[in-house]
Amino acid sequence: MAAQAIHQFAECITCHAWSPDHSMIAFCPNTTEVHIYKFFTDKWEKLHVLAKHDQIVSGIDWSRSSNKIVTVSHDRNSYVWTQEGQDWVPTLVILKLNRAALCVHWSPKENKFAVGSGAKSVSICYYEQENNWWISKVIRKKHESSVTSVAWHPNNIHLATTSTDGKCRVFSTIIKGVDTRGPQAGASVDWKFGEQIAQLDLSPTWAFGVRWSPSGKTLAYAGHSSMIYFVDDVEGSPAAQNLALRDLPLRDILFVSEKMAIGVGFDCNPLIFAADETGLWSFVRYLDERKVTPSTSKASQLSEALGKLYGQSRQGSSSDTVEPSKPRGGAHENCITCIVPLRKGSESIVKRFSTSGLDGKIVVWDLENHITIPK
């Protein structure tokens, strides 16, 4: 079994993040609070409760170099938390939102962060030294529905988003005085702030869990129709691959290397995807090796028959590949909504990661001794 550790922290967990040295974990137990735990010898102990939001906390990210925590909530607010002695001190961020904030991520250089929202917009937040506050510039009038996830390109300029309008978009987030312009910034074109670089209309349903590969050459995101999409050369001439899943949809994706990705979602079991030498992506296997005895009930037989019928209908499409069904059950007992890498230093290959879900568990997974990770 690849699950290294399983911790039952709450009845339900909305999102989670790790401290830079992985000694502490921050998570939202589906409430207005963020709990911070630390591992001592043989058990986890609660150290802090961050209580500033008025509604459910929907996103958490913990910066690796500056040791700051950013949180967002359905209350339309965001706070940047800075540790001062034994306390975490919040600073309100001016988001300019009239709907719930749904997700948040620090940029690679940690000089800004992006907040997706139900207001069909994305707030790019940065620190203004002169006034000693966090403010934002908003990308508006591009999305047709709620922004479900955001992902930063390694160049710190490009930002990918997914939305419940089914589209994945890539924007420029360059901000004067914060970012460097020109080729040295890693962008081949001198884009303006908020300019749309690409729009991918591959999913007929809601889109979730967008991520870039370590080099930024490949973009992956999931559709609520049990599809995952891998797109190369997004800025130039996008080349997309559609991979159809036999079972339930994904909610989040993580690249563990340039040629391997992990998908998590409603199947409660991480899925491994890999690319061959030609760049063709395919399903490898489920990560959780626990076996569940198949049911012999008429209901389960009918479900399996419908699944086969559904799979055959998908095989009729030449651009889709259908993956085999798998009995659910294992480390997680409910939908996995969040996947977070556990990197050491500057390593690009992710050998360990954690997942959290609606069952209130946080599971740490170890890939190194269970699967060969292609570079």
What does this entry look like structurally?
This protein has 375 residues and is mostly beta strands. It has a single domain (3-366), classed as 7 Propeller (Methylamine Dehydrogenase, Chain H). Helix content is 5%, strand content 45%. It is built from 1 helix and 28 strands. Strands 1-28-27-26 form a 4-stranded antiparallel sheet, with no helix packed on it. It has a 4-stranded antiparallel sheet with strand order 2-3-4-5, with no helix packed on it. Strand 22 and strand 23 (260-265) form a beta hairpin. The protein is globular and about 50 Å long. It starts with a strand and ends in a 9-residue tail after the last strand. The relative contact order is 0.12. Residues 310-330 are annotated as: Disordered. Belongs to the WD repeat ARPC1 family. InterPro entries: ARPC1, WD40/YVTN_repeat-like_dom_sf, WD40_repeat_dom_sf, WD40_rpt. WD repeats lie at residues 50-81, 140-172. Keywords: Actin-binding, Cytoplasm, Cytoskeleton, Repeat, WD repeat.
